[in-house]
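User: Quick sanity check before I run a bigger batch. Here is a single chain. Can you write out its predicted 3D structure?
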Amino acid sequence: MKTLITNSVAGLLLLSGISVAIADSVVLAPEQETTIREYVKKEPLASIKLPGIELKVGSTLPEKVELHKVPNVKYEYTVIDNRTVVVDPETHTIVKVLD
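Assistant: Done. Predicted structure follows.
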């Protein structure tokens, strides 16, 4: 009986973790990505170095990183290690890394 309860709780935690991960993911619409790519080509930025920061979706950038607006798009961008990084300006969370 104890094993059944433990397995049930573990299963519920696993499922709730998956649903949280799904809720936290951001989908960048193709037209938004196109707008950002075109804008970045017109308005290039100097690349900065951020040692210890993994450039992947879901990583959080330090508040000191300056983000730049893209007209008509919710997200902002910066260039780190020669890679354009699309960021949610409210949370500083990486939404997309453009190659």
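The radius of gyration is 18 Å.

User: Great, the batch can go ahead then.
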